[in-house]
Design a protein that fits this description.
Chain lengths: 116, 114
């Protein structure tokens, strides 16, 4: 059974710090891995999607990496700001999941708080 | 281009009642997936619809059912509501059902069962 784990569950940092969020997955046969941001009570905002053939993607202050062999992805946030405070979720699209090849499997998220 | 929309935004129901949630897919997308997100958890896959047929289902009981219409919009129906059904329900659309295609999420419907 494919599982996605995110560590840490919560993280509090002072403004300006660079930080890394971790995501691990048990099945390396994935189509892609995606990072989302979720503000309290809101839906999901897609941040970065990494195809299985790629090693990393960048958008502004965000950089996501993918290492299928070790079953890990990291989201790097540079120069954090209070506006970055949110829950960050990773999800993969497994080739082997029995329910449907099209569904995403999510971790529980990392709740980030950036203090001014 | 219109993104994924969901209605209603919020809903309060009583245990045992039935509820219908609606989702309009992004233009050109023929696949809709539904997810349930309980408080403090990641979203869990409920089912997917492709060309008006169910195309895969997660570990949810039959009282969770759905429909997809010719314009690719979709409904999620939940019968005999239980307190544990309280959650944020998210729908996502994609160009095709394969996991190779990115899913685009709507803002969600917050369901509270009392």
């Amino acid at each position: 059974k494919q599982e996605v784990t995110q560590i840490p569950a919560a993280l509090s940092v002072p403004e300006g710090e660079n930080l890394v969020l971790n995501c691990s997955f048990t099945d390396s046969a994935i189509y892609n891995l995606q990072w989302f941001r979720q503000d309290p009570g809101k839906g999901l905002t897609s941040l970065l999607l990494i195809q299985s053939s790629q090693r990393e993607q960048t958008s502004g202050r965000l950089n996501a990496s993918l290492d299928k062999s070790s079953g890990r992805s990291t989201l790097y946030i540079a120069a954090s700001q209070p506006g970055d405070s949110a829950t960050y979720l990773c999800a993969d699209s497994s080739m082997n999941y029995g329910g449907s090849q099209g569904n995403l499997i999510f971790g529980k998220g990392t709740k980030l708080s950036v203090k001014p | 281009e219109t993104g994924v929309t969901q209605s209603p935004t919020h809903l309060i129901k009583t245990r045992g009642q039935q509820v219908t949630l609606r989702c309009s897919s992004q233009s050109g997308h023929n696949t809709v997936s539904w997810y349930q997100q309980a408080l403090g958890q990641g979203p869990q896959f409920i089912f997917q619809y492709y060309r008006e047929e169910e195309n895969g289902r997660g570990n949810f009981p039959p009282r969770f059912s759905g429909l997809q219409f010719p314009n690719y919009s979709s409904e999620l129906n939940v019968n005999a509501l239980e307190l544990d059904d309280s959650a944020l329900y998210l729908c996502a659309s994609s160009l095709m059902p394969s996991g190779a295609y990115e899913q685009y999420f709507g803002p969600g419907t917050r369901l509270t069962v009392t």
